[in-house]
Hints:
Number of strands: 0
Distance between the termini: 57 Å
Shape: globular
Largest sheet: none
Radius of gyration: 20 Å
Structural class: mainly alpha
Order of helices and strands: HHHHHH
Oligomer: single chain
Number of domains: 2
Amino acid sequence: MPEITLDQLKKELKKDKIDDLEKFKKLLQEFYKQLKKEQKDFIKYLEWAYEKSGRDADIKSILEEISGKNASDLIESLKRLGYAVQKSLGEDFEKAGFRLLEQVRAGKRSDVMYGITRIFLANKQNLPDILNEAFKPYYSDEIFKCFMFTFISSAIKPKENNKEE
């Protein structure tokens, strides 16, 4: 699909009536998808610039600001990922979950990453990119904790309640 511009959207909205609402909604969705990809690419370039600049404070500030705005999207994605892996890895996360949660609480990013990576690799699965994103150093410790608490709590397979009523 060709690139969609804001001018195209503006042109459609200036009309008295939206001719084909379904087509316009698809146009909006495609534009949003395009925008998210560009934003993701921009963050990668900012990371690259930050490293190449010798970790310049101003570039880090821009990176943190933009990354912070992406944090809520990332939290939602991590929650969905947690529920998605629950079926295949839920028992492993149940076994290691409380230890991982304690390490998250203590701010031990590398230990948490090791524990989660170990679960995926032991089950012959690659670590999803979205999890790698959560461990990036420009996210504050508090945001990192939110990411991990969200993911781990949704990945732990709940125990069956066998109580008879």
